[in-house]
Amino acid sequence: MNKLTADDLIYGYINGIFPMADADGTLYWYAPDPRAIIPIHSYKPAKSLRPVLNRNQFEIRLNTAFADVMRACSQPRSEDDSVWISDEIIDAYTELHHMGLAHSVETYIENRLVGGLYGVALGSVFFGESMFTEVSNASKVAFHNLILILRQQHFTLLDTQFINDNVRRYGAIEIPKADYLRQLKAGLKQKARFTALVPEKV
Fold first, then answer.
1. Which InterPro entries match (predicted)?
2. Buried/exposed code over 41-62 (b: 16+ C-beta within 10 A; e: otherwise)
3. Beta strands 35-37 and 157-161: pairing type?
4. What pTM value is reported for the model?
5. What's the pLDDT at 202?
């Protein structure tokens, strides 16, 4: 098989599939049924996160360290954790990032990257891929800011692929694959721009 490219990723996402690498680097494409999504407008930050947000403990940046975020996400979280983000995947998503279609939300403390997430934006759909944290609440704050961006820029669908305890804490639910594909098709027809938050007018 030829090396994974940004065009392969675009084709995959618009058809409801995405790649993951096996331990030996072999790529496989997935289309879960049911599919996990996070309803954009029903998300509410946990009560324990609100004081962290109010303190402005973290500096938020967009798209300034995309490859660094991916590499951090590729590290196993425990001895039992499998790694699915290969060098080939990092290269392809970084290519997509240079095309303006893959994005990172990053959290910093004293100019040090301590958490973040990345994903792909096509039409009004954001495909969340992975997140990492080196400091308590860093990835949660990154996700909170992701949601604010998606709401402000009128995104319609946040795909999170598989259900697990991590995405459940953000309100993830499962829907049938057929429903996901319908929402995907509609969302791809609508335009939305992934950009920094615009201050609300008073």
1. Acyl_CoA_acyltransferase, Leu/Phe-tRNA_Trfase, Leu/Phe-tRNA_Trfase_C
2. eebeeeeeeeebeeeebbebbb
3. antiparallel
4. 0.94
5. 41
Which pLDDT tens digit goes with each residue over 68-127?
A: 999 999 987 765 556 789 999 999 999 999 999 999 999 999 999 999 999 999 999 999
For 29, 70, 76, 83, 104, the CA distances from 147, given in Å and listed in that order, are 27, 19, 25, 26, 13
Which of 35-49, 78-92, 179-193 comes out lowest in average pLDDT? 78-92
Q: Do 27 and 109 form a contact (C-beta atoms < 8 A)? A: no
Q: So where are the chain's domains?
A: 6-189
The pLDDT of 12-18, averaged and rounded, is 98
Q: How far apart (Å, rounded) are the C-alpha atoms in residues 123 and 155?
A: 8
